[in-house]
Structure formats: structure tokens, C-alpha cells
Specification:
globular; three-stranded mixed β-sheet; GMP Synthetase, Chain A, domain 3; alpha+beta; 3 strands; 42% helix; 85 residues; 4 helices; single chain
């Protein structure tokens, strides 16, 4: 699943070297957190969220085939830059 997301994202963004996907287990669901360059956020989310929704739909289809549950989250780069207190 992680490879599929990376493949889609590196071909979508202007800064493919900044694409990073973090995998977290949360009970019976695997959460994939997408990290991209701040300039690429608009490309990943799309107008009205259409692009990220399409990515989530593709992931959902793959997850069903693999018999797993997934949740895709796009991390806000501004939150990642702030130091943790």
C-alpha cells in the first residue's frame, strides 16, 4: 500500500524528493500519513478535495483486495514545522 501511495504522489507533485509516507498501526486500521512539500499541498488536496478523495478511493479498493483497513491523512506542513512542547 505504501508503495502505491508513493508512486501516485511522486508523479503528482513538483517536489518528489520531499514525499514521505509514515505508516502507523491503530487497532485494526493502518493509518498512512502523507508528508509533502508545502508548495505541493494544493496539488495533493485538489480543488474541493477531489484529488485526495481519489487517492483515498484507490487506497480503499487496494485495501479491500488485501483484506485490511486503511486511513489516509495529509499532514499540514505548518504543523510539522512547529516544535513540540
Amino acid at each position: 500500500m505504501k508503495n502505491l501511495l508513493e508512486f501516485i504522489l511522486i508523479h503528482l507533485v513538483e517536489h518528489p524528493e520531499d514525499v514521505k509516507i509514515t505508516e502507523r498501526a491503530a487497532g485494526d486500521t493502518t493509518q498512512y500519513v502523507i508528508h509533502v512539500h508545502p508548495e505541493d499541498m494544493g496539488r495533493v488536496i485538489g480543488k474541493g478535495g477531489s484529488v485526495i478523495q481519489a487517492i483515498r478511493n484507490i487506497s480503499r479498493i487496494r485495501a479491500i483486495k488485501e483484506g485490511i483497513r486503511v486511513h489516509i491523512v495529509v499532514e499540514d506542513p505548518r504543523e510539522a514545522e512547529q516544535p513540540q512542547a
